[in-house]
Molybdopterin molybdenumtransferase (Aquibium pacificus), 419 residues
Amino acid sequence: MTLTALALPDHCEAGATGAVIPVDIAAAKATSAVVPVAETETLDLLAAIGRVLAMDVVASLNLPPFDASAMDGYAVKADAFAGQGPWRLKVTGRIAAGDTPAQSSEGSVRILTGAPVPQGFDTVVMQEKCRVDGDSIVIDQKQRSVQNVRIAGEDVRRGESLLEAGETLKPQHLALLAGQGMAGIAVRRKIRVGLISTGNELREPGQPIHPGQIFNSNRVMLRASLDACRWAEVLDFGIVPDTREAIAAALAGAATKCDAIITTGGVSAGEEDHVTWAVGSGGGMLDVMKVAMRPGKPVKVGKLGGALFLGLPGNPNATLVTFRMIALPALRRLSGLSHTAPTWTQAVADFTYEKRPDRTEFVPVCLGAAGSDGLSRVTMLGRGSSASLRAISRADGIALLPPGVDRVEPGMRVVFEAI
Ligand SMILES: Nc1nc2c(c(=O)[nH]1)N[C@H]1C(S)=C(S)[C@@H](COP(=O)(O)OP(=O)(O)OC[C@H]3O[C@@H](n4cnc5c(N)ncnc54)[C@H](O)[C@@H]3O)O[C@H]1N2
Ligand code: MOO
C-alpha cells in the first residue's frame, strides 16, 4: 500500500460516521474532495519557478534552430577525403557563434562551437585533429559526414510536446521555455491555505512563557512546508484559544478567504477539543474522523463553506505525518498538480519494531548505506512517539509500515518518503 489510491471502493460513508478508516482511503477522500483551482495568470519565466503549469506546451521552434558546430575546429566536406591522406584543405573563411549563416564549399572554414555550419559543408573536424600550415589545414584521418554537428531539431522538434499542464515548473523547464523564445508562461493561481494553531498552552517563539505553556512549533513547520510549495500562499491566523467561540470565529473568517484551512490541535476526544464542533457549527461537514494510522489517528478532513478543511492533530510528529500523507496530496490536487501522492522509495529495514497489525504506522528513519541489492538500509529513530520533535528533526524520511504486519525485522522491505 503506498497511498496512491484515488478510487474509494469501501468505507465511503464510514468516514463521516466516525468509524476508523484506512489511511489510503482517508487520503483518497481528502484528495477527491477538491476541485483544482481554475484561474490562471501569466508570469515572467523567473516568477513562474515552482508554479503549476496551466497549459500544455508544444514546441514552436526547432532546437537547435540550425545545424550547429559542436566543437571548435574546421567545417569540411566529407567527400573531400577521397583516396589516401593526409589531406590539405585551404581555410577560406571563419564563422563563430552568433554570426549569420554563411555559404561556401571551398576547402574548409574555421568554425567555433555553436556557429552555424556553412551550407555546402557537412562535417566538422575538431581542431586537435588538424595541423595549421600557412593558410591551410592538414588532416591525417579520413572524415565521415555529420561529425561534431548538432543537426537542426535533433534536441527539440517543432510541433512536439514539451511540457504538460499540471507539472511544477523547475529551472530546467524554464530553460526549455526560454529556448523556445517564451518570456512568460500561464500558471494556475496560487491556492490560499489558512493556518490556525489552536491551543491555550501555545506561545510564539520569542514570547515570554509561563509554567504549563509551550512554544508553537507546528506553525513554523507547516508554514515552512507550505512556503516551499511555490503554488501555495499561506494566510496565517495565528494562535486561537481553546474555546468553541474563538475557534468557530477563526474558522468562519478563514473560510471566506481560503481555498483550504489547516488547523492543528483540538481534534481528539477531550472537553478542550473544539475543532469538530466548530466545523459543524459553521455548516461544515467532516468525511474523515478517525484513521487507522499512528501517529495521526484523530485527523479530520471535510469541507467548510467552499474550503477544504484539514484538522491535524497537535502532536508535532502527528502534525507532520498527517500533513504529508493526507493534507499535502489534497493541496497538490487543489493547486492543479497532476502528481499528488507522496513519493515512496524502496528500502530495507535495519531495525526491529513491534506494531499493531490493524493500522498503518509511520516511523521516522535515517538512511544507511545501500546493501548489495542496491537498496538503502533504514534505521528507526526514537519510538515513533507522536509528540517527539527530536526524532523527526533527525530523520531522513518517514517509513510506512503497512497494516497486516505485526513485527518489522531486519531485512524486511519497507518504503519511505524522504523529508
Ligand atoms: N481520550 C483520548 N485522548 C486522546 C486521543 C484519543 O483517541 N482519546 N487521541 C490521542 C492522539 S492519538 C493524539 S495525536 C492527540 C491529538 O490531540 P489534539 O489534536 O486534540 O491536540 P491537542 O490535544 O490540542 O494537543 C496534543 C499535544 O500537542 C501539543 N501541541 C498542540 N499544538 C501544538 C503546536 N502548535 N506546537 C507544538 N505542540 C503543540 C499539545 O500541547 C499537546 O501536548 O490526542 C490524544 N488524546
Ligand atoms: O495517533 Mo496520535 O497521532 O499517536 O498521537
User: Anything to note?
Assistant: Residues 4-10 have pLDDT under 50 and may be disordered.
